[in-house]
Amino acid sequence: MIRGIADSLKNKKSSLGHTPATINFNPPQLNFLI
Questions:
Q1: Cα three-residue angle 23-13-25, rounded to 5 degrees
Q2: What domain range is 15 assigned to?
Q3: Which of 1, 20, 21, 25 registers the highest number of CB atoms within 10 A of its CB?
Q4: What is the number of structural domains in the chain?
C-alpha cells in the first residue's frame, strides 16, 4: 500500500513538480517521501 502511494506521489511530482498542492496532498506520516 505504501509503495503504491509512493508511486502515485512520484507520478504526481513528475507532472506537477514541487507545488503546494503536491505537498498538501501528503499525509504527515508520508512527508519523508518528499
A1: 30
A2: 2-33
A3: 25
A4: 1
